[in-house]
Amino acid sequence: PITANQIAAGEVVERPASVIKELVENSIDARASKIEIEVGESVLSYLRVFDNGMGISKEDLPLAFQRHATSKITSINDLNQLLTLGFRGEALPSIASVSELEISSRTADSINGWKFRFSGGHLVAEEAVGMPVGTDIIVRNLFFNTPARKKHVKSESTELGHIKDILLRFALAYPEIAFKFTAASSRQWQTDGKGDYFYPLVLNFGEEIASKMLEVKGESADASIKIHGFLAPPAFSRTTRLQQIIFVNRRLVRSRLISSIVEKTLNTLLAINRYPIFCLFIEIKPEIIDVNVHPTKMEIRFSEEDLITKVIESAVKEQFFPQQ
Ligand code: ADP
Ligand code: MG
Description:
Elements: H1 4-12, H2 16-29, E1 34-39, E2 46-51, H3 60-64, H4 91-97, E3 100-106, E4 113-119, E5 122-129, E6 134-140, H5 147-152, H6 156-173, E7 178-183, E8 186-190, H7 198-205, H8 207-212, E9 214-219, E10 225-231, E11 244-248, E12 251-253, H9 256-270, E13 278-284, H10 305-320
Parallel strand pairs: 1-7, 11-13
Antiparallel strand pairs: 1-2, 2-6, 3-4, 3-6, 4-5, 7-8, 9-10, 10-13, 11-12
Helix pairs in contact: 1-4, 2-6, 6-7, 9-10
Bound molecules: adenosine-5'-diphosphate and magnesium ion.
Magnesium ion (MG) binds near residues 22, 25 and 91.
Protein name: DNA mismatch repair protein MutL
Family: Belongs to the DNA mismatch repair MutL/HexB family.
GO molecular function, one term: ATP-dependent DNA damage sensor activity
């Protein structure tokens, strides 16, 4: 029989890259300063995310695999003050329900860690293990028990491409975290976690563009909106929006509004009509954002569109046309 977790998994775990995204977000929420991501011979056979975050205690481990058990929201009001990436308590139980998942975790106040193994969501083994503080999750045989879902998985290179893309975005949004990515079938990269943007920009946009990008910065008078980012000179502009990367409160999003503000500002000033390459980090009071959308939906909406437009517009103008 299909379980509720497997149904939820249909929404949360669309493809191997969604597993990686959810696991890395949990590592970030656990305040890891080092996150290692490993993909095995095939994306379905082996995915691993290993962090040095706060870990999960033995008592909390089974809870983490119960639906809607999250340690991150204590009251419904917190939803408006959301500072963690996760809050639904759906990812781990969903992933476990459609794979063979092994989790080892240790908190600082314990002298050893605990390893739990699940198969199709059922706990099958539990043992004490020696390990550093942090969490190590291995997902094997993804979708082994949901053949319909498995059929939707695209070619190895397509799926690996999605994983790479998502990890490169994390490296850019969290330069203070040292990421290390290895994949059996492709070249690896790592960041040093020292907070510099340059190398993450190189990884995302290539050396030539990264070295020519200009920094933009700005904020609203009441400081409810702050923006920071890097724009490639218009000569590099493209015919698609594929190289526009937007983070809102360090969450990767899509926003037609924000894309079009940057585009309009640059295109109007330069009388061209192309898609500029940029990444933009927007910090915004959580109550102005509607986070309560579909779990995997990336399109974001704001309630203060005019203010956001003004802040971005003037930051871009100031950098590209300082005299005006
Ligand atoms: P959510 O992130 O929405 O809370 P998840 O299903 O992703 O739900 O995770 C469930 C819980 O497991 C989290 O609330 C957190 O307490 C714990 N957890 C998951 N991954 C980690 C990790 N890497 N380090 C520490 N705790 C974790
Ligand atoms: Mg989560």
